[in-house]
Design a protein that fits this description.
By secondary structure, the protein is mainly alpha-helical. The protein contains 18 helices and no strands. It has 2 domains: about 15-200, MFS general substrate transporter like domains (Growth Hormone, Chain: A, Up-down Bundle); about 270-480, Growth Hormone, Chain: A (Up-down Bundle), CATH 1.20.1250.
């Protein structure tokens, strides 16, 4: 097997086959709420700015407040799930997220909305950090686990583009308040179903003592780090004194955290977890692929809006093929690919497809045609993501002990979140700088803008290509991946 086979959390013995799949759907519903929220809000930002009177600079805090709390607390939330019970943390996070969504929808001032978004980020971190760990304990059998992780990967990776469509519909049909109010019935139902369908796990307990200094250090490091990326680095540049000072503070906090974890009797993050090449490599790949993919979805949306003239709803529809392909591959075929070839080879193949798609995007012209210049790119990204991400998530958990599953899941989430924020800041900054230099050289406005996007697409391709190198050199085939016999291969092909 390529994942853990038992846990003191929910076990297959505790839940029947049908109940386990119902529990998976509940977990993915919670994840979908979190993922949708990010892109739904992005689409509604102009309407929020007009209604509440945000300036262009202050408007960024509607997104940044969420990202800082979410990225800063993911790792701590994952470990709390191991210690206090993952269902407890999952349900608690949903309650916080849903209540904060109500506050966001009711907000009539900038201060209330930003504060509520921070609380939303706390709830989002608690909810999402423990999901992957719960899935691998619910589905220890390799074939079922691959299928379950494929379904989860689809929700985690493709849900963002669904949010573009949903955000456009809700904002244009009603108003921006409803992008938050829609979370209320979903959150209430998901909490009720989680309590009913997900077996309560005991957790390791905190009797041996809690690593409070370690928790404070890593949470502070991640929050300061994410803040540095989304605020001074994005606005002032990476060489600005404030950016450098905060970067040094982040590095100092991280060093102190590592020293603390190496000496603590009951560390928050046992450093032994990084002895796994697959876990370490998977986290590096997660950070790099998130840097490339998230930045391109954001900048690709800007290309469609500012260069091709698409509105919010048209942008959502434009990205729909990516969502459909990710869903089809993740839910229907990822399990078969993993069982036939093991998780490593599909992961590498998916990353290569993403690199090819990003390289192709660098050729999109000012007067681009969707079917010629955009759809092929989104098709390759959808194929690559649908093949790569389920295999990556399964491989990341291959050597993880049951008691560390929540921590490992939170670590993957943290790397994805930090990678996405870093990638967006770097790509957006370089794109804007390139656009300004082209405009200064006398290029027409749209041509200069497109040139800036081309540079960001090329750099994103290089970033994901680095992930391919890591996958080929550092990652190893899952130690216990099933060897599929010829009869099983025929059965899979006929399925």
């Amino acid at each position: 097997m390529y994942a853990t086979t038992e846990s003191q959390a929910t076990t297959p013995a505790a839940l029947g086959g049908r109940s386990r799949w119902l529990a998976l759907y509940v977990l993915c519903a919670g994840m979908l709420m979190i993922v949708l929220d990010v892109t739904v809000v992005n689409v509604a930002l102009p309407a929020i700015q007009d209604d509440l009177g945000f300036t262009s600079s202050s408007l960024a805090w509607v997104v940044n407040a969420y990202l800082i709390a979410f990225g800063g607390l993911l790792l701590l939330a994952g470990r709390l799930g191991d210690l206090l019970g993952r269902r407890n943390i999952f349900v608690g996070g949903l309650v916080v997220f849903t209540a904060a969504s109500a506050l966001c929808g009711l907000a009539e001032s900038q201060e209330v909305l930003v504060a509520a978004r921070f609380i939303q980020g706390v709830g989002g971190a608690l909810t999402s950090a423990v999901i992957l760990g719960m899935i691998v304990t619910l589905f220890p059998e390799p074939r079922e686990q691959a299928k379950a992780i494929g379904f989860y990967a689809f929700v985690a990776s493709a849900g963002g583009s669904i949010g573009l469509l949903a955000g456009g519909v809700l904002t244009q049909a009603i108003n921006w308040h409803w992008i938050f109010f829609v979370n209320l019935p979903i959150g209430i139902v998901t909490v009720a179903l989680a309590v009913k369908l997900i077996e309560k796990d005991k957790g390791l307990g905190m009797g041996r003592g809690t690593d409070v200094p370690g928790a404070v250090l890593i949470t502070a490091a991640l929050m300061v780090g994410v803040f540095t990326i989304v605020k001074p680095a994005a606005e002032l540049g990476w060489t600005a004194p404030r950016t450098i000072a905060l970067s040094l503070l982040t590095l100092t906090l991280l060093v102190c955290f590592v020293v603390r974890e190496a000496t603590a009797a009951n560390p928050l993050v046992p450093l032994r977890i990084f002895r796994s090449r697959n876990l370490t490599g998977a986290n590096l790949i997660q950070a790099l692929s998130a840097s490339g993919m998230f930045g391109i979805f954001f900048l690709g949306s800007l290309y469609l809006q500012r260069v091709l003239g698409y509105d919010a709803l048209e942008i959502g529809l434009a990205f729909l093929p990516t969502t459909v392909l990710m869903g089809l591959l993740s839910v229907r075929y990822s399990e078969k690919l993993v069982m036939r070839f093991g998780p490593r080879r599909p992961m590498i193949a998916g990353l290569v497809l993403i690199v090819v798609g990003l390289a192709l995007f660098t050729q999109a012209p000012v007067n681009g045609n969707y079917f010629i210049h955009v759809l092929p790119v989104l098709t390759l990204l959808g194929l690559g993501g649908g093949i790569c991400f389920p295999a990556l998530m399964g491989l990341s958990m291959a050597d993880v002990k049951p008691e560390d599953a929540g921590l490992a899941g939170g670590l993957m989430g943290t790397m994805g979140e930090v990678g996405a924020a870093l990638g967006l800041a770097v790509l957006a900054t370089l794109s804007a700088t390139r656009t300004e230099s082209l405009a200064a050289a006398g290029k027409p406005a749209l041509e200069a803008l497109t040139g800036g996007f081309h540079l960001s697409f090329a750099i994103a391709g290089v970033i994901v290509a680095a992930a391919v190198v890591i996958a080929c050199t550092l990652m190893r085939p899952a130690r216990s991946a099933e060897v599929v016999t010829a009869d099983e291969a025929e059965e899979l092909a006929a399925a």
